[in-house]
């Protein structure tokens, strides 16, 4: 994950661009003019729709995003351009075509229930001149992209001529083309690196009923052959992602809670494109996409996901390495803010944890039970020496942090240089501060910044000092 944070891939999205428009209100009466509800509109919101949600996901992951498509010379087109510019997307590749309507889908919502949708858009194929403008622009810029996504919503932008022209230019330049397909004929995507249909879409395109692994493999193979794909891929909703390269592999989903699957497909193609741009294998890219989707389906509405959220989610599943759980002051501050925004309770404790033993583990397990997120402040080597004497620590800070971070009860470890974690506690402001039972009746550093103080008794006979004495033979084992 760390190397992904160091990269800012350049990714181009070509496809159907639209605005999702929401009218929010309440309904308390029926119209006297007709048997329909009268909605009192309280607010309006507009967000990017269609390929725009893929763009939102790429931006959230940290990519530089450019977009190409065709819109009308109308008020909706001006609004769409403004929405894209607001998130720092390069819109120089967007073509204005006279007479075309920019897609805008308006939804009337009353009491959290959608009661009406009305669309204003063009669905016919774009003009040949628009196709030529997009391809001419791509000819001059294709080498500057790490990946390209074709986002097809069936609104006429991704014609056969455009798709084939884009794919041929990208293949010649060594740029992978990923496609979110539409319809039952995938021939226009022939030569792409991969497609990302869901199971229903794949069954429609292959005319194979996917009901088990045998039929799934048949569908993957048929897609790969008929569309001349490098990789054949099908998303399987709660069952994960199936990939066929030299053999079929299924990567199970890692979602813990599912609130809304809206936009999960956009998250999958965006995250796969991002990972492939970082030179990850298709296997690692699929696993990354599963993690991203796992975060998104735990949110309400079309959502995006950041690398930090994916890293934290992976850590919560205990599928990450210990390094991912070790944070700096600045990193833990951002983590706490995100957890608090989701209503999570933060617990903090600290110590030297020089030689990890069962007493430490039981203490930390109890500490974690007081909330959702356990952060452990860890004394640096110099700090331990000042507190325990020149012969300590036995284990250096890097080793101590790594072992702590590997424990299931510990979410994050934050090393600190001072003798006390005062500044760390002040910054985190934990809901619960946990200390050992030997602090009964004593002053505890940082309590003024914590919601509550909990004291936990140590396990009798278990301590680092006694462990060292046993090793030296000073006491009986």
Structural descriptors:
477 residues; alpha/beta; UDP-N-acetylmuramoyl-L-alanine:D-glutamate ligase; Rossmann fold; 2 domains; six-stranded parallel β-sheet; 16 helices
Q: What number of domains?
A: 2
Number of helices: 16
Radius of gyration: 28 Å
- The level of helicity is 25-40%
CATH topology of the largest domain: UDP-N-acetylmuramoyl-L-alanine:D-glutamate ligase
Number of strands: 18
Spans of at least 5 consecutive residues with low confidence: none
Q: What does the overall shape look like? A: elongated
Q: At CATH's second level, what is the architecture of the largest domain?
A: 3-Layer(aba) Sandwich
What's the end-to-end separation, in Å?
Answer: 43 Å
- What is the level 1 CATH name of the largest domain? Alpha Beta
Q: Give the neighbour order of strands across the main sheet.
A: 5-4-1-8-9-10
CATH homologous superfamily label of the largest domain: Ribokinase
EC number: 2.7.1.167, 2.7.7.70
Catalytic activity: D-glycero-beta-D-manno-heptose 1-phosphate + ATP + H(+) = ADP-D-glycero-beta-D-manno-heptose + diphosphate; D-glycero-beta-D-manno-heptose 7-phosphate + ATP = D-glycero-beta-D-manno-heptose 1,7-bisphosphate + ADP + H(+)
GO molecular function: ATP binding; heptose 7-phosphate kinase activity; heptose-1-phosphate adenylyltransferase activity; phosphotransferase activity, alcohol group as acceptor
Family: In the N-terminal section; belongs to the carbohydrate kinase PfkB family.
């Amino acid at each position: 994950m760390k190397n992904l944070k160091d990269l800012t891939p350049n990714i181009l999205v070509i496809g159907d661009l639209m605005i999702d428009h929401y009218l929010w209100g309440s309904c308390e009466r029926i119209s006297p003019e007709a048997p329909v509800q009268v909605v009192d509109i309280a607010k309006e919101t507009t967000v990017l729709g269609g390929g725009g949600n893929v763009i939102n996901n790429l931006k959230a992951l940290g990519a530089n995003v450019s977009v190409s498509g065709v819109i009308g010379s109308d008020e909706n087109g001006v609004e769409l351009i403004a929405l894209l510019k607001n998130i720092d997307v390069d819109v120089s590749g967007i073509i204005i075509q006279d007479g075309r309507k920019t897609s805008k889908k308006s939804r009337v919502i009353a009491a959290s229930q959608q009661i009406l949708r009305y669309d204003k858009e063009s669905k016919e194929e774009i003009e040949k001149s628009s196709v030529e403008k997009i391809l001419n622009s791509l000819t001059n810029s294709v080498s500057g992209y790490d990946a390209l996504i074709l986002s097809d919503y069936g609104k006429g932008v991704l014609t056969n001529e455009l798709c084939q022209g884009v794919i041929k230019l990208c293949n010649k330049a060594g740029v992978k083309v990923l496609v979110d397909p539409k319809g039952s004929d995938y021939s226009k995507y022939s030569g792409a690196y991969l497609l990302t249909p869901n199971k229903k879409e794949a069954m429609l395109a292959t005319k194979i009923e996917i009901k088990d692994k045998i039929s799934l493999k048949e569908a993957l193979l048929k897609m790969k052959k008929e569309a001349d794909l490098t990789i054949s891929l099908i998303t399987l909703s709660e069952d994960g992602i199936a990939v066929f390269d030299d053999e079929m592999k299924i990567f199970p989903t890692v979602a813990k809670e599912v609130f809304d699957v809206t936009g999960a497909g956009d998250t999958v193609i965006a995250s796969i494109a991002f990972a492939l741009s970082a030179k990850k294998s298709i296997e690692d890219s699929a696993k990354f996409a599963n993690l991203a989707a796992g975060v998104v389906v735990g949110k309400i509405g079309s959502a995006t996901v950041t690398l930090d959220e994916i890293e934290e989610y992976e850590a919560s599943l205990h599928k990450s390495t210990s390094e991912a759980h070790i944070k700096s002051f600045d990193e833990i501050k951002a983590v706490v803010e995100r957890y608090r925004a989701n209503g999570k309770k933060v617990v903090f404790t600290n110590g030297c944890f020089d030689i990890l033993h069962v007493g430490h583990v039981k203490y930390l397990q109890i500490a974690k039970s007081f909330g959702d997120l356990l952060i452990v402040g860890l004394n640096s080597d110099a700090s331990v020496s000042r507190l325990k004497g020149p012969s300590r620590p036995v284990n250096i800070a890097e080793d101590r942090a790594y072992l702590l971070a590997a424990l299931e009860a510990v979410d994050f470890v934050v090393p600190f240089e001072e003798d006390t974690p005062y500044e760390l506690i002040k910054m985190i402001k934990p809901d619960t501060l946990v200390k050992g039972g030997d602090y009964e009746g004593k002053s505890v550093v940082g309590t003024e910044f914590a919601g509550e103080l909990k004291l936990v008794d140590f396990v009798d006979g278990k301590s680092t000092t006694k462990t060292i004495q046993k090793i030296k033979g000073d006491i009986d084992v």
